[in-house]
Design the sequence.
């Protein structure tokens, strides 16, 4: 006996064709896998590639510190929310 299979589970080899056919039979699993890959790609990869936060975020932090009512370029709420989050959580370095 090469391997043990728990009772009630089919003894099917885990090759790539059975993995993809199982995902095609259960589209919610395929959707969950797609969402996981997209989340990883859009959050981890930019953090590894770009050494600084986006320019609009830095600008929002600077305007948020002033608690300005009106600006010529952007609405004031994002800057206020950024400054409130900074006051609640403190300062952290951007990962490098």
Sequence:
């Amino acid at each position: 006996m090469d391997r043990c299979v728990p009772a009630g589970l089919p003894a099917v080899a885990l090759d790539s064709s059975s993995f993809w056919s199982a995902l095609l039979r259960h589209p919610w699993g395929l959707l969950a896998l797609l969402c996981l890959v997209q989340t990883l790609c859009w959050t981890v990869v930019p953090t590894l590639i770009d050494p600084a936060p986006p320019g609009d975020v830095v600008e929002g932090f600077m305007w948020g510190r002033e608690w300005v009512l009106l600006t010529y370029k952007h609405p004031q709420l994002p800057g206020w929310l950024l400054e409130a989050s900074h006051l609640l959580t403190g300062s952290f370095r951007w990962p490098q």
DSSP finds four helices and no strands in the chain. The two ends are 50 Å apart (CA to CA).
